[in-house]
């Protein structure tokens, strides 16, 4: 018989956009989450702590680090409850069993790539075409929950807001005015197809020079042998446009520069911050124009959450979050990275979801969870079947979570400063002394008690039976 609550060894990804050293909340958890393998350096970015069976950074059994959690689950599939066989494995050819989600803590000091996560159909096509790059034939909807104040771009803003931005900011009219797609969109500003065509033309612009599409410039040079034309479509370059806007904001203030937009004063200040931060790290990237003037810039306070569907355009900007998604690592990127690292723009734009709507529609609700007793937990109800998330706040009394029909992975983000911190497997009658940062797998069918003062964030399989997550309509 195997334990139903198992401590895990989990590792961090050091992507360059992550917060560095002690600025990253991951370093608070790393010594216990990674244990023997933890290495700290004040200049290293700690971008993502992975808690998952996904082969790109799989969790291991803490007390037997040579064994992957996925291998252990293959030997004991009963721990997964209702999950086995319901979802595609994350990598073709792997026989191990998997939890149906990738659970992370993510930090960012700068924008992540402007990206979408493929839906199931596109993921399967990309995997068949290039299985090395697109290892997963699975979709990847996701939820982000703020641990600190957080800013992120998600989805297209409402049509009227995009139109007001384009018509009221003269730098944009000058920069984009020579593009046929710009004129066509403003002639029909509620057309999703024309909006996508304009966004495609902007993202195709040469990062360092102009409104001319890179391929068009190369063609002119190849055919004529001439240098770049004196007059290019659009006015100036993306780097110059954003620099000009920032200079005018610093001189006149965001209220004056964005007076004709539909943003309120607080939103104008957030856009100012976004322009400066993206320009600092990605000067000249035309994605700055798309993100700041076409998309929702969403601010989350700690505990608030948003949900991005598969194919949803997004780019996290600044802050520290819980991130939870379906079991896939596939992504298509179009901006905020080196040109050679960008994916096929035609595929990207064709797949990109274009349903302009207000920022508030991306936020999801939380409520006290009926599957919890004692101090209680809050649950976030997510439309995707593979996962939901609950939070135990670490009150002065304990919280008990009733048995669930699938697996859970939990990270302990706070424990009492004095005394003993515990979690209890009430099904088996065993008690575990715990520390901040430790990560645990909890098997299906297990009643677990988080002791007084123990704060936990936990990802769990949600079969959409609302007895587990409740009705939040």
State the main characteristics:
Jelly Rolls; 9-stranded antiparallel β-sheet; single chain; 473 residues; 25 strands; 14 helices; 3 domains; alpha+beta
Secondary structure blueprint with pairings:
Blueprint: E1 5-9, E2 12-13, H1 26-33, E3 48-52, E4 60-61, E5 64-68, H2 69-75, E6 101-108, E7 114-116, H3 120-129, E8 142-146, E9 150-156, H4 159-168, H5 170-176, H6 180-187, H7 192-203, H8 214-224, H9 238-252, H10 254-257, H11 265-282, H12 287-294, E10 295-300, E11 305-308, E12 314-326, E13 332-335, H13 345-351, E14 363-364, E15 366-368, E16 372-374, E17 377-380, E18 388-393, E19 399-401, E20 408-414, E21 422-425, E22 430-433, E23 439-442, E24 448-450, E25 455-460, H14 466-469
Antiparallel strand pairs: 1-4, 1-23, 2-3, 3-6, 4-5, 6-12, 7-13, 8-11, 8-12, 9-10, 9-12, 11-14, 15-17, 16-19, 17-18, 18-25, 19-24, 20-23, 20-25, 21-22, 21-24
Helix pairs in contact: 6-7, 7-13, 9-11
Structural class, please?
alpha+beta
Are there runs of 5+ residues with pLDDT below 50, and where?
A: 209-224, 226-235
Q: What global shape is seen?
A: elongated
Number of strands: 25
Distance between the termini: 41 Å
Count every helix, treating DSSP H or I runs of 4 or more residues as helices.
14
CATH architecture of the largest domain: Sandwich
Binned, the helix content reads 25-40%
Largest sheet geometry: 9 strands, antiparallel
Hey, roughly how much beta strand do the residues contain? 15-25%
Number of domains: 3
